[in-house]
Amino acid sequence: MDSNWGYVALGYMVTAGALGAYCTHLGLRLRRARRLDAGRPAEGSAPACGAPE
Amino acid sequence: MTFAGEAALVAGKDLRIEARARVVTAQVLPFAGIVVLLFAFALDPRRNVLPTLAPGLFWVAVLLSSLLAVSRSFAIESEHGGRDGLRLAGLDGGAIFLGKAAAIGLQLLLLEVVLLVAVFALYDVEVHGLVVIVPAALVATAGIAAAGTVYGVLAAGLRVRETLVPVLVLPAVAPVLLGATRAFELALAGELGGAWRWTSLLAVFAALYTMLGVLTFGPLLEEA
Amino acid sequence: MTPNTPTPNTLTPNTVKPVARLRASWLGALTLLSLATTALFALLIAPADSVQGDAARLLYLHVPAAWLAYLAFFVTAVASALYLWPRTRRSAWDQLAGASAEVGVLCTGLTLFVGSVWGRPIWGTWWEWEARLTTTAILFFLYVGYGALRRIGGPGSERRNAIAALIAFVDVPVVHFSVSWWTTLHQEGSVFNDRMEVQIDDPLMSLTLWLAVASFTLFYAWCCVLRMRLFELEAGRAERDLANAIEQRIASRAVPMGTG
């Protein structure tokens, strides 16, 4: 039954890879979104309802 | 107007359009026929299995054709503000659903009759158990039409409707494929009890999606 | 250009949710810790199964992943229902539905993959048309379709998503029953004895399985939190982009009329 360890390894590696890749993907997107967010505080006010003078 | 009257009105409209445009008869039916032929070509080397596979292949052909029928049913609404017309006509959302689903179902039934003859003839199948086959086909078709109409309106206003509807509909109607194929197989083999069991599952599916359709069609039509 | 004084952007997460961010990091750390512990137990500490040998260790992945797939779908359905109910209607429910579905697709795919890998040494084939695997395969495609629908977005998408999720969810029991009936037809007295379970006689194996289920659930929760935050940030940014574009439009119109 030693050959089964190959399958076990395959299963665990792919699982770890998939879970890790997804988390990393989320983390990177979050970081990018926060950066884009942080670059905006001065401009981000809502427009005035009336026309500007 | 009564609920049933409104549904009949919508169904009549769809069927009348089909009678004039003949899209299902001239395009979807040949499509189904070609699919039946293609299956024969694909399985040719072992042709002795075609009679065994006939129920499954028949229902796959019907399912694929239903996608086209559903697509067509909502395509006719997207021209000339048809959806707006439906919304403004003051009809009950559930009635519109029943009308459209009934029209699709009837068109599919007609298609199935032709296809059944073709399959039985081309694949050399012995016909037994029609007493179950007919009800099974009726409820299966009702389920496919209902599910197709629900997902059709879900995707109605979207540009990607053509590619989205199959992805949504086919997994959802997998039970119909399973059930209808098994019902047909058992009926052809003479095991009517088992066939009736599957037919009742098909009936549950049809009832479920009909209920879902009646409840959700109105709100979904508003968004479309 | 635009003569308004910059006001602090209340949507910036930097100002609003430092506490929430801390909580997510804590959850993340706990998740990683428990996953690592699970791996340790599953691979080294738990004994090999008497019947299935070491291949049974794959079930410590397959079973939790399957559990999670169904949990995620359930959460998506509940969140969708809460969105549709007028009294509880909030965008956050749609975001939860989407986040849960995304992790769900991942876990469903994993369930199928690990199940297949497990099956190879046990059944001798990469696939068997057994009830759970087949139902999971259909579930996978239901999810994927829902995800494709979500990606369209736009006005009214939240309600559309919610209805789609509920329709799909209602379908699942029907799928389950039809597949179960179908597979029992095939396996009458066949050699298909090795079901996707371990005989939990050994307490260590039991512990490992529970640990695995807990770890995966933590992972799910963490990913949902992260994903929802991402939805929020992107929605907020879309709003601000729109606001900025409107401002600039107004400003560009105003310039010729102003005295410079």
Structure description:
The complex is a heterotrimer of chains A (53), B (224) and C (260). In chain A, 66% of the residues lie in helices and 0% in strands. By secondary structure, chain A is mainly alpha-helical. Chain A is rod-shaped. The termini of chain A are far apart. The C terminus of chain A is likely disordered. By secondary structure, chain B is mainly α. Chain B has one domain. Chain B is globular. The model of chain B has no long low-confidence stretch (mean pLDDT 90). Chain C has a domain of 163 residues. About 7% of the residues of chain C have low confidence. At the A-C interface, helix 1 of A face helix 2, helix 4 and helix 7 of C.
Q: What secondary-structure arrangement, pairings included, does this model have?
A:
The complex is a heterotrimer of chains A (53), B (224) and C (260).
Chain A: H1 4-38
Chain B: H1 3-21, H2 23-42, H3 50-78, H4 82-88, H5 93-122, H6 130-154, H7 161-172, H8 174-188, H9 192-223
Helix pairs in contact in B: 1-5, 2-3, 2-5, 3-5, 3-6, 3-8, 5-6, 5-9, 6-7, 6-8, 6-9, 8-9
Chain C: H1 13-16, H2 18-45, H3 59-84, H4 91-123, H5 131-150, H6 157-186, H7 203-257
What brief labels describe this structure?
B: 224 residues; mainly alpha; 0% strand; globular; C: 260 residues
State Rg of chain C: 24 Å
What is the straight-line distance between the termini of chain B?
A: 25 Å
**What is the H/E order of chain B?**
HHHHHHHHH
Q: What is the overall pLDDT average of chain C? A: 83
Please report the total strand number of chain B as a whole number. Answer: 0
**Contiguous runs where pLDDT drops below 50 for at least 5 residues of chain C:** 5-16, 188-193
Oligomer: heterotrimer
Give a short synopsis of this structure.
The complex is a heterotrimer of chains A (53), B (224) and C (260). Chain A is mainly alpha-helical.
